[in-house]
């Protein structure tokens, strides 16, 4: 995973610190920094971290935001509210993409639960990041905001699904075999006339199937074969 840092500025509820550590760990992030936490260490943080206590235990505490992001190539401030004056505004998805392009340590900076980030903290960062939400109720819980950021980072790094079986993909040759077989069956059955545009239609249909597997092509061809044999068998039957 890329060196993405999560910085919590003046968090007041230790439970949120633990829940943020857990949110990070599930998405493969481990670098957590706490700027002047109101109460930390605290048992509530441990409880909420569950299996992510290692992230919590490695979290470093800093006196100021500048100290927490001094060695980062960029810092992105998270805010639920737009501000009249702010650095460049990005939505969270574009921000995650931007952070990964930088290919060096990048911090995502979160504000206090009730007051958010101060203007000074905001301007210590190069961008203001917004998580799209209902305008009437746009303020997410701190740890949930961390979860969304960590998830978006993850989606840019790794979209592989666990447990998905990786099958052999159909090649162009496999597909051409299927098209020829379809044509043969369509003509033999009288379904397709010579001037028909069916050829284009099924090419168009299969072009919309991403990652067709060889086995799937074989199933379709097996079905065509069985249908054709069945028809012939009936035709061959004496009247
Ligand atoms: N009441 C505060 C919000 C506190 S929520 C305010 O109005 O600013 C705690 C932190 O979670 C915020 O400082 C911000 O860093 C993050 N956060 C919550 N909702 C967010 C959203 N919709 N977009 C971006 N960050 C958000």
Structural account:
With 239 residues, the protein is of the alpha/beta class. It has two domains: 4-157, SPOUT methyltransferase, trefoil knot domain (Alpha/beta knot); 172-236, Helicase, Ruva Protein, domain 3 (Orthogonal Bundle). The protein contains ten helices and seven strands. Strands 3-2-1-6-4-7-5 form a seven-stranded parallel β-sheet. Strand 1 (4-9), helix 1 (14-26) and strand 2 (31-35) form a beta-alpha-beta unit. The longest helix has 23 residues, at 214-236. It is elongated, with a radius of gyration of 28 Å. The termini are far apart. The site of S-adenosyl-L-homocysteine has 19 residues, from strand 7 and helix 7.
The biggest sheet amounts to: 7 strands, parallel
Count of helical segments? 10
SSE run:
EHEHHEHEEHEHEHHHH
**For the terminal residues, how far apart are their CA atoms?**
71 Å
Bound molecules: S-adenosyl-L-homocysteine
The global form is elongated
The domain tally reads 2
CATH class of the largest domain: Alpha Beta
Catalogue the unreliable spans: none
Biggest sheet: strands side by side, in what order?
Answer: 3-2-1-6-4-7-5
- Which superfamily, in CATH terms, is the homologous superfamily of the largest domain? SPOUT methyltransferase, trefoil knot domain
What CATH architecture of the largest domain do you see? Answer: 3-Layer(aba) Sandwich
Mean pLDDT comes to: 92
The helix content, as a percent range, equals: 40-55%
The name of the CATH topology of the largest domain is Alpha/beta knot
Q: What is the SS-derived class?
A: alpha/beta
The total of beta strands comes to 7
- Beta fraction: 5-15%
Radius of gyration: 28 Å
């Amino acid at each position: 995973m890329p060196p993405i840092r999560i910085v919590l500025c003046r968090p007041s509820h230790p439970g949120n610190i633990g829940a943020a550590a857990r949110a990070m760990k599930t998405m493969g992030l481990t670098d957590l920094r706490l700027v002047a936490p109101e109460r930390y260490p605290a048992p509530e943080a441990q409880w909420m971290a569950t299996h992510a206590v290692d992230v919590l235990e490695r979290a470093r505490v800093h006196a100021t935001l500048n100290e927490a992001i001094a060695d980062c190539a960029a810092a992105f401030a998270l805010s639920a509210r737009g501000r009249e004056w702010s650095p460049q505004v990005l939505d969270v998805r574009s921000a995650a993409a931007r952070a990964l392009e930088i290919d060096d340590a990048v911090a995502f900076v979160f504000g206090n639960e009730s007051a958010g980030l101060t203007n000074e903290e905001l301007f210590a960062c190069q961008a203001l990041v917004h998580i799209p939400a209902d305008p009437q109720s746009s303020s997410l819980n701190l740890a949930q905001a961390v979860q969304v950021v960590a998830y978006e980072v993850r989606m840019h790094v790794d979209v592989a699904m666990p447990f998905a079986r990786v099958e052999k993909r159909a090649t162009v040759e496999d597909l051409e075999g299927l098209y020829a077989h379809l044509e043969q069956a369509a003509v033999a059955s009288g379904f397709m006339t010579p001037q028909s545009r069916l050829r284009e239609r099924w090419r168009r249909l299969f072009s919309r199937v991403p990652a067709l597997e060889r086995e799937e092509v074989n199933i379709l061809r097996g079905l065509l074969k069985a249908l054709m044999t069945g028809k012939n068998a009936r035709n061959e039957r004496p009247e």
